């Protein structure tokens, strides 16, 4: 089994940098009220090798440091780290193997997004910000048991049907989000919880007015290609 010592200085330098990024992004999960206790995890894939950095399993957030982050290959085997990796490692690895443009994955059990997952419902696209960010509804993925790559398979299957969405609500489990890096996936997790909360509140007031797909496509195109700094 390969260890980090088997990789060159460029890879080891990126591992050091990504460990720092991934450790700090777990603080954002707490800041945006997306996790409790030790639930949830962030990973980021390297550009210089087929490796990823992920949170250790069951370690409380206040104890996380860059050195406690675990380096794994894209089959989920540990390459470097003193701790066991997240129980979601096999699913993160599956997503990276099957979605080559994805370099960040986040899993949370944030309250409102997970409530939609518990009822097996897509979050309907009733907000322009959902058109911007998700290109339609936030989809529900199939029920899968934790501990293997089965959840990752469900995420990939679902996103093939909703290619503009960076989020999947795995039924009876919770949201998984993707991004071009780990920060992008954390942003998607925060946005998923925000729209889940707002659409739940809208349901209490009455029927949600869903936006036509043609208008959603225009919103998403503008957000993707015009909005922000380029």
UniProtKB/TrEMBL annotation:
Keywords tagged on the record: Metal-binding, Zinc
Family matches, as NCBIfam families: PRK06557.1 (NF005123)
Family: Belongs to the aldolase class II family. AraD/FucA subfamily.
SUPFAM superfamilies according to UniProt: AraD/HMP-PK domain-like
Signal peptide: none
Cofactor(s) recorded in Swiss-Prot or TrEMBL: Zn(2+)
InterPro entries the UniProt entry points to: Aldolase_class_II_sugar_metab (IPR050197), Aldolase_II/adducin_N (IPR001303), Aldolase_II/adducin_N_sf (IPR036409)
EC number: 5.1.3.4
A GO CC term assigned to this protein in UniProt: cytosol
The Class II aldolase/adducin N-terminal domain, residue ranges: 20-200
Claim: Zinc is one of the keywords in the record: yes
Catalysed reactions listed for this entry: L-ribulose 5-phosphate = D-xylulose 5-phosphate
Organism per entry: Bifidobacterium margollesii
Pfam families for the chain: Aldolase_II
Gene Ontology biological process terms from the UniProt entry: pentose catabolic process
Protein name per its UniProtKB record: L-ribulose-5-phosphate 4-epimerase
GO molecular function per UniProt: aldehyde-lyase activity; L-ribulose-phosphate 4-epimerase activity; metal ion binding
